[in-house]
Amino acid sequence: MTTLGTGLARARRWLRGHPLAFDGGLALAVLVCMVCASFAEPDPGHGPVFGARVPEPASVLLMVLGAGALVLRRRRPMAVLGVTGLLSVVEFVLMDPPAPVVMSAVIALFTVAASTDRPTTWRVGLLTMGALAMAAMVVGATPWYSQENLGVLAWTGLAGAAGDAVRSRRAFIDAIRERAERAERTRDEEARRRVAEERLRIARDLHDVVAHHIALVNVQAGVAAHVMDKRPDQAKEALAHVREASRSALNELRTTVGLLRQSGDPEAPTEPAPGLAVLDTLVGTFRNAGLPVEVACTDLDSPLPAAVDLAAYRIIQEALTNVRKHAGTGAKAEVSVVRVGGTAEVTVLDNGRGAGPLPAQADGGRHGLLGMRERVTALGGTLTAGPRYGGGFRVHAILPVTSRTRVPERPDPAGTTGTTTEERA
Predict the structure, then answer these.
(1) Residue 425 DSSP SS3
(2) Lesser CB count within 10 Å: N end or C end of the chain?
(3) What is the distance between the alpha carbons of residues 107 and 163, in angstroms, rounded to a whole number?
């Protein structure tokens, strides 16, 4: 049974790939059926009697032409129906009793109904039924109500209904297949979108950690190298700050890289993400690096959501890192975190004059402000960053306490930064 089923499935696939061969076989089968039926004489009492009559040569020619037209039924269904219908009418008019040439018209009508829409099927089907039934009832020698004439009417109507049912089933299957393919594409797109968002989030975290700690290490290493000979005690203190910044960088990198592990990995880090609770420690690292920072943080009525707390911490970290890198010597910074209604406002100001334009990085850097803007936008907040009137730079973020996401929008003119903004990134 398995071998038979495999053979049938293989033959079905081959016939679907070669429709002309299938139509040729169908035309041959219809021709054989018409020729066999043309030798039968209906007998109301005992059923049809074979060999009682012989078809005329003209009838054989009409049957061959009708069957041959079926080979093109897929390419020109309407034309094939017209040809087979005309041949059937000619057979009814010229021959008595007629040969069953109408069988080819029935197959052609089925093809038209299966390949067109329902209104066309109704119009063409009724026209074909009426023409063939009228020719059979009016011209033939038998009474109009004979079973042969009623059979023409029944078979043509059955062909139209069967073809319409096949077309409806094909449309239903195509719709199901299309929905399945669309759902598969949607799942793939959603998976790619989630992967891209996760990569961007990890890239932001890595940038914040590396940019902050490496900037501090660079500053402290420069101080140690400068005072190594004349002030060894101060050099040791700077190196101690370098060691502390390196340790913090390694710890945060370990935490960030741990996000790439599976959720059930026992080696994944379990330390909480940094937030405003450790803001004093963050500010202390900048003060040790020689950047005076003043902090004004109002007492929050309730703890901020974890996502908002982390975003506020990272914004302050990146803004102060940019101040230390680009504001120049003698610059001071001010940090404020204020709860206003349903939002938390984070502001970082400095009075630096800048260290001059920086060369563009070959690796497409300047990700600091972009990362801050992505964090704020993901929470449904707004970020403005740009030069201050009279000198310095200002970063201002408004974060909703009730976290929500929205589609990223283009920054408005207030949030658009110029050359100085790109230099700070």
Answers:
(1) coil
(2) N
(3) 9
Burial environment of residue 107 by CB neighbours within 10 A (0 to 12, 13 to 18, 19 or more):
buried
Residue 338: phi and psi, rounded to 5, are: -130, 135
Q: Which pTM was predicted?
A: 0.50
DSSP type of residue 71: G
Q: Which neighbouring-strand residues pair with 40?
A: 50
> What is the C-alpha to C-alpha distance for residues 305 and 289, in angstroms, rounded to an integer?
31
Positive or negative torsion for Cα 28, 31, 33, 39:
negative
Residue 400 has pLDDT above 80, yes or no: yes
The SS3 assignment for 155 reads helix
The model's pLDDT over 293-319, given as tens digits with 9 standing for 90+, comes to 888 887 665 678 888 888 888 888 888
- End-to-end Cα distance, the chain: 72
Residue 44 has which token pair?
């109301």
Helix, strand, coil percentages, rounded to 5, for the chain: 65, 10, 30
Local confidence band at 377 (pLDDT 50, 70, 90 cut-offs): confident
Give the helix/strand (H/E) hosting 94.
helix 77-94
Read off the tokens for 424.
């700070």
- Res 107: pLDDT: 92
Query: What is the torsion angle, in degrees rounded to the nearest 10, for the CA atoms of residue 294, residue 279, residue 308 and residue 377?
Result: 50
**Spacing of C-alpha 53 from chain mean position:** 67
Return the ∠ at Cα 417 (arms to 411 and 419), rounded to 5°. 145
| Mean pLDDT computed over 200-210 | 69
Give the tokens for residue 176: 């199901």
pLDDT digits (tens, 9 = 90+) for 32-47: 888 888 887 766 556 5
The per-residue DSSP string of 212-269 comes to: HHHHHHHHHHHHHHHHTTT-HHHHHHHHHHHHHHHHHHHHHHHHHHGGGS-TT-TTS-
Distance in angstroms (rounded) separating the CA atoms of residues 398 and 187: 34
As a whole number of angstroms, the distance between CA 82 and CA 59 comes to 18
Regarding beta strands 393-400 and 49-50, do their DSSP bridges make them parallel or antiparallel, or are they unpaired? unpaired
The Cα 336–Cα 339 span in angstroms is: 10
